[in-house]
Amino acid sequence: MAEKKPHVIADSYRIIGLAAENFLRLKAVRLAIDPAAHALEISGENGEGKSSVIKAIWTALGGAKALHQNDEPVHDDADKAVITLDMAPADDARANSPRRIRVTRTISAEGGWGLRIWTPDKGTFPSPQAILDGFFNTLCFDPSEFLRMKPEAQAKVMVDLAGVRAPIDALKAKRQVFYDERTDVNRDQRKAEVRLEALVPPEATVRAEVSLTELNRQIEAARQVQVANDKVRQELQALYDDHAKAKADVKRLEGELEAARARVEDLVTQGKDKRTAVAELPDPGLQALMYKLETAESDNALAQAAKRYREEEAEVDRLQKKSEALTRNYDAVNDEIAAVLLAAKLPIEGLAITEDGTIRYRNRPFAQASDAERLEVSLAMGAAMHPRLKFLALREASMMTERTRERVKAWAAEHDVLVLFELATSEEIGIHIVDGEVLQRDLQLEAGHAQ
Fold first, then answer.
1. Would you say 109 and 74 are in contact if contact means Cβ atoms under 8 Å apart?
2. Which class for 243: exposed (0-12), middle (13-18), buried (19 or more C-beta within 10 A)?
3. More confident residue, 136 or 313
4. Strand order in the sheet with 39-44
5. Contact (Cβ atoms closer than 8 angstroms) between residue 29 and residue 439
6. pLDDT at 356 over 70
7. Which of 113, 114, 198, 380 has its CA 20 to 30 A from that of 339?
8. How far apart are CA 61 and CA 83, in angstroms?
9. Could you tell me the sign of the dihedral formed by the alpha carbons of 253, 255, 258, 263, in that order?
């Protein structure tokens, strides 16, 4: 028995048929889509199941990841839901194309999921889901919804589309570390500045801090010298007193005149010698030292204040330099983010994202672009989301004006893309869904499933 060959996958595909049974709000819907069509309108009131048609397409391709967390895929009390999606190569979009693909998803009420891919040549797929991932993007991008997003949400979607979410998030995390550290440093710097402002700047003549132990030693030594000097001065004074007494004795005692004169001469001689000795005595500077002791405490306080001021001044300078270094690091990360965004591949020329998350188109903020330009960008992004699938879905197309829808149809024809318009209305426009089923009318709709 010959081994089956892998099926040849085309570069891009068009959806040519959809069947969904018991899926979300759908009971049974079967659609055969004209391969040449570029617009498909699905209408119905809210809650009737029109949104489930779009979700059925995405779920057929992406599986459970295409559903929201609260979605219950199996309708009411059914045992299972089945979705079948027919796709044909864009360059040969016929129902009987030999390279067409039929994808069948089965979802049991118990939560089991099954996937089967059928091909006319009975070819095989080594990894079926990997093949389908080439057609499906988990963003399920809706161009009409994108236009109504806030700028920051639009930038997030565009970053995801460009495939640079991981490096951008890593750089932003790195930037946040610098930002948080700089915030802490700036806070510490402000505290240091407040402490510095509370201090009185030291004068240039503030003396160095005085050693009280050494000063007291000097005072004691000076005190001893002073005592000795005082003793010598007292001796001189005694001589003066004796001299005076002797002179009195001369007057009073004529008889002892000669002896007294001799005594006077002797005392005068002693006095001269002692006066010479006194004149040569060194002054210990006791008064200056005592004054220095009295002012030592205030001088020390000034010296300590000067030291503290210089320390706080140095701390403010250190923190300022650290903050500036962190700012340079922060700015460098911004430059890295800008470089990544600049190198990102975006779906349309002239489109760019700045490092602060602003979308620009043709050198202007995207929000200032004309309605036509914004629509063109949004549609191009939608097409870029699924480059191998010629399909776009506008879930809130009823909020568009008729003129805007016509522009979308013209764009779809130009780019050979099938655009599905979801219209919330009771009017029977295009394929009308009522209570989970297609309202049978004279439409380009086959009762059977596309083969």
1. yes
2. middle
3. 313
4. 113-118, 101-108, 80-89, 13-23, 26-32, 437-438, 431-434, 39-44, 418-424, 391-394
5. no
6. yes
7. 380
8. 10
9. negative
Phi-psi region of 104 (alpha: psi -120 to 50; beta: other; left: phi over 0): beta
The phi, psi pair for 263, rounded to 5°, reads: -65, -40
Residue with tokens 């979700």: 55
pLDDT tens digits, residue range 158-168? 888 777 888 88
Contact 371, 401 (CB under 8 A): no
Domains and CATH numbers, the chain: 1-136+386-451 (3.40.50.300), 141-162+344-385 (no CATH), 185-327 (no CATH)
Beta strands 26-32 and 431-434, pairing class: unpaired
Q: What is the arithmetic mean of pLDDT over 364-381? A: 84
Cα(136)–Cα(385) distance, rounded to whole angstroms? 8
Q: From the CB of residue 46, how many other CB atoms can be counted at a distance below 10 Å?
A: 9
pLDDT in tens, 214-252: 878 888 888 888 888 778 778 877 777 777 777 666 666
- At residue 79, the pLDDT reads 93
pLDDT of residue 81 exceeding 90: yes
Between CA 52 and CA 67 the distance in angstroms is 10
The tokens describing 273, both together, are 């010698």
pLDDT tier at 137 (50, 70, 90 boundaries)? low
* pLDDT reading at 257 higher than 70: no
Burial of 105 (0-12, 13-18, 19+ CB in 10 A): buried
Amino acid identity, residue 271? G
What does pTM read for this prediction?
Answer: 0.62
Residue where the block lists tokens 């003129």: 403
Residue pointed to by tokens 């001065």: 233
- To the nearest 10°, the Cα dihedral for 397, 403, 405, 406? 170
More confident residue, 169 or 447: 169
Q: What is the DSSP string of 108-145?
A: ETTS-EEEEEE-TT--B-SSHHHHHHTT--TT---HHH
